[in-house]
Structures are given as C-alpha cells and as structure tokens.
Task: structure prediction
Amino acid sequence: MTATSAAPASRTPTPFAPPAPAEPAPLWVHCPGCAAPVYGEHFRRGLRVCPACAHHDRLGAAERVGQLTDPGSYRPLAAAPTVCDPLGFTDTRPYPDRLEQARRDTGLSEAVLCGTATRDGHPLVLAVMDFAFMGGSLGCAVGEQVTAAAEHALATGTPLVIVSASGGARMQEGALALMQMAKTSQALADLDDAGLLTVSVVTDPTYGGVAASYATLGDVILAEAGAHMGFAGPRVIAGTLRQTLPECFQTAETLLAGGLVDGVLRRPELAAALTRLLAAASWARRGRPMPAEWRDNAPPLARRAEDLPEDDTAAWATVTLARDPGRPTTLDYAGHLLEDFQELRGDRASGDCPAIVGGIGRLGPVPVMLIGHQKGHDTRELVARNFGMGSPAGFRKSARLMRLAAKLGLPILTLIDTPGAHAGVEAEAGGQAHAIAENLRLMSRLPVPIVAVITGEGGSGGALALGVADRVLALGNAVYSVISPEGCAAILWRDAAAAPTAAAALRLGARELLRQGIVDAVVPEPEGGAHRHPALTARLVGQAVAATLHELVPADPARLVADRRARFRRFGLRA
Result:
C-alpha cells in the first residue's frame, strides 16, 4: 500500500500547467447544447457559455480558479499524503493505471484544486473540483484536500468556497471513500462553530457522496445555470428502480423551487455574487464599524402616544391605507435602501415561499440581513406572492437566514406587511404553527441586533414571527393586531360588514401601539401615505433604521438578548 496523490504542494505539479495541446484550439466550435457554430475565442472568453442557447459547457478546475479569483492571487495548499490503492482494485484496468491516465489527461494530481486566493481583495480558501478527473469522484486524496482546505480556513479565519462537480464517491477506494463524506462534513461543522462563511457553488453534475456532504452544507448554495444535483444519478434511479423520471429532474431550477439552493446564476454572475457575500462576512471581523453620522440622521420620530392624534373614527381609513397596493414592498425597500443585495432563497427542506423574501445587502457600509413579507402592486403579483401570507417554508427560510446572520455577526432588519400567516390545508399539513413557534423562540435568543419595522399590515402570528426584535418601529399608517378587522367582525359581530367597527374596537393604529409599548417609535409617512411617495418613505425608514442600529450594534450580545427578552416579558403586566 503506497502513499501518494495528495502530497504537499511542493511535490505536486503546478495546477496551471496541463500538457500542451497537440494542435491549436479550433477556430470554430459547436455548442454541445444546441450544436450552433460559435467562434472559438469568443466561446472561451465567454466562459464557455453559448451566446445562442446559454448552454453552460463544463469548465476545468484551473479555468474555474481563473474565473472566480483575482489574477495571480491563487496559491495551492498542501495536504497530507493518502493511500493510493487500498483495495488493489482492478476492473478492466488496474486502478493505478486509471489514476495515471487522469493525471496525464488533465495535468492535475487529483480531482480537486485547493488553495488560497482573493476575490476583489477579499481573502478566501478555495476547493474546486474537476469532473474531467475520473468524474470528479470523491476518494481519500480529494477528501483529505477538501478537509485540509477547511482546516486552513479555520486556522486563518477565512471564508471557504467550494465548487463541486462530481459523480459521487470513488468506487475503487471502497469504504474509505465513503468515510470521506463524514470527514469533510465534520470539517465544515468546525467552520460553523467558528462563525466562518461557507459558500457552495454547485456545477454540472454534482451527485452522490459529494452532494450528500460538503456540496450541500454551505451557508449559501449557489447553483450554476444548467447544473444537476442529486444523491442518486438519473441512470442509477432509472436502471435500478425502473422509475420514469419527471421532466427537469434534478435541475438547478427544480432545486430552487424545492427550496434546496439559494439561487441559480449564470456563470458570469458567480464572481460578483461571491464578492457580495465575502464583503458582508468581513464586516464583523473588521470590528463592526458604524458610521458616526447615523446617530443624528434619524427623521423626527413619534415616541409617545401624545405625539400622535387621537381619532378612533380614522381606524378603518388607516387599515385601508396600510393595505394600499402602492405601498413599498420588501423588495422595493431592498432596491431603495440596500446596495449589493443578494437574495437568498429556500428553506433547505420543502420549498421556497414567495411571500417571505430575504437576503444580504449593505445599508451604507453596514451589511444587514433583510427579511420581510412580500406582497405586490397588482393582482398578478399579489396572487403569485400569496398576498404576503407566509407558508411554513417561508418561516423556515426566515429562520435559516436569521441563523446565518447570527453566525456571521450581521444585524437583522425585518419588514412586516402581512394579513397573517397562510391558513390553507397545505400550510397546516406542513406545520405552520410549528414553524411560527420556532421563529418566536429563535428570535428571542439571537445574539445580534434585530430591528423590525411594520410597514403596512401586521396581522397576527404571521407578523409576530418576524417581530421579536430589540426595537420595533412602525410607519404612521401601519396597523398591528391579533386578528384582521374582518375576522374579528365575523366572529364577534357575526357580520363581516362590521369590520370598520371592529377596527376601531381593536385599536390597531400607531397611537395605541405606542401607548402599550408594542412599538418603540413611529416613522412619519409622507403626505397622503407611503404609496404616494415610495422613495421618500424608504429614505425615512432607512434613516430610522440606521439610527437604531447605531444604538444597538455596539451593545454586548448577552445584554442584547437579556434586554430583548425583558421587553417581551413585560407585556400584559400592570404598571
């Protein structure tokens, strides 16, 4: 049994010196997807994406490194030597012969390149797989190199980016190859404990032991357009189980709809997405700097009930304003307030709820995790977004993003605008009550600042599931209630037409919310309401949030949690 194939970098060939081609690259190539002729140099400069059909041809590991890192920044990492042929395996050829052939064909020592690099100046550790090397299979050397890369990321406090392309665990190495799944997963768990960002870029194809370990354990999973990912490949499923596979089986788009990846990006978009994520992850490690001017830039806020007019007859008018479809939505606020917003999708289990959206963006120089209800401005969008009524997948997605914010030390901003949680049969079967309850418990103990803003309707538990915050703000025409006026009227008056009367009785407007201490301050709306001046409304909200974060970010995490819990502990007690 010999040791080889994962030697230190000083004993391995440079990853950027594949054998010279026998003949010049062809002037024209045919797209593997649509067979259209493409000028070869344009095809290569376009990262092997067909300009006609957008088919993404496979890239080698060296090409991936060149695409995703700053020129000249890549440095290979060393790894411990591993066993070469533990089984003495032979099929039609001895396993060592297959290894040597793969090395000659690719110029690589193994099916992964691991090293350090920078992306727009941000340091990262990179592990990039190459499908051309024995199908990108996971053997002892690959597992050791990925693990060593994760350990280097841990030792240096650097984010880890993994680019996967694999057919699965390497059969020629038997159970030792299987053990690499646990070994690499354990290494990524250490990065979780250390609060270090991990990003998985899924490329075509990613199957088997790689898909069932480090490829799906990233904090953020980005799938390249055209990628396929699954535990068992389609030929295995069709051949062993005799099942007819559905159209678009295991495609990136299907994975996105199933809540299993955060986004599907075209190849040229990947580098910019990495930059956004790496920049956000660096903020806490740079000491969480805050702009000094934020302290004094807040708009005039109402902090006492007496600062707002008392008019119970206006309750129904306020409800109507809160529901106006022209009011800014969460994605509108993201567009107005945040730079470099990267939406993150999916609950990693059952689906992606369109009624709750979230992602990372910069409020000025400060990265925040934005999560909010998403309604819409017309009937088509309202229906597509389920009128902002979150499903269990939506609340589980928001919980996942909150945990990521806590891991990276990012403040959380939630925007509340929902009639309530979805109450349909599917939601009940999916555990709606469980998902909401988990959010309430989770938010009560997150060690990062949380600011919630009620921007429109705050309906019942579906609103509170995003509302357990250190500071709760509300727009002047926002409402917040245990039930909708129509629901209250139907139950107590037995007449839905009594909704205006119920609205007045529920005292769901900003003045009463301030009086009871349910909200801490009210952000004034422009004349006529937020729907008349969305950009101005967003600016006022942004200034209020910035001033609030300036107060909260320097606080000790334990004090934040204690004060947040004390805030909610007081509700309902006599003064």
In short: Confidence is low (pLDDT under 50) at residues 1-22. The first strand starts at residue 3 and ends at 4. The chain is about 40% helix and 20% strand. Residues 335 and 341 are 8 Å apart (CA to CA).
